[in-house]
Design goal:
Length: 254
Amino acid sequence: MSKRNLIASAVVGVLALSGSALVSADPLSDLQNEAGKNHAAAKKAQERINNIYEQTQDLLVEYRQVVDETENLKVYNDHIARLVADQQEAIDDLQRQIDSIDGVKKGVVPLMYNMIDSLEKFIELDVPIRYEQRKARVERLKEVMGNANVTVSEQFRLILDAYSIELDYGTTINSYQGELDFGGQTISADFFNLGRTALVALSLDQKNGWVWDNNARTWNELEDSYLSSVNKAIKMAKKLEPVNLVKLPVPAAE
């Protein structure tokens, strides 16, 4: 009986110990579970911190870029402001010039008409070198003066060009074909002028020649001894022969 009691007591004791072990295991498990949750929470928190840090770095880079762009824009705006100020000065200067144009026109336009009239009178009194061509040029100038599509500056340029051409007639040798009136007949001929010093003509068959008398405003028949020389002069002007001395009828100085 005592052994049975001892065995029973031992069994009861083992069961008691087992029960106490089971009871004591529950808090430990809870602690482990809480620790796991804490670790998971800490991991998530760290991930959030990492994300926030990365976003902060991105925002910092963007901020620096914005600051750099702002500085660049400030420098550029200052540059544009200087350009605008310079352009405004140029505009103001042009406006002052435009405002003065009306006054200039009032003086230039009458001058141009006087220049055309003087040119026309000069051609009528001058040696008739390319007479028809020069008269046509004057008529074109008159037409240009009445054309609203041609600026005053262009009109003035054309008049100066005409004067320049007239100047060349007196300093160069020329040869051209045209017609002359002699003895009531219109004759086709080759013309040669030595500046305004001499104007001669030679019939196309080279059998007759004439010289212009500007005082009498008429053509005079040329002596046969001059025909060969006039023919050579015409060829020299056309660059068919080298320039050389030739005999031409030149009015004597008074």
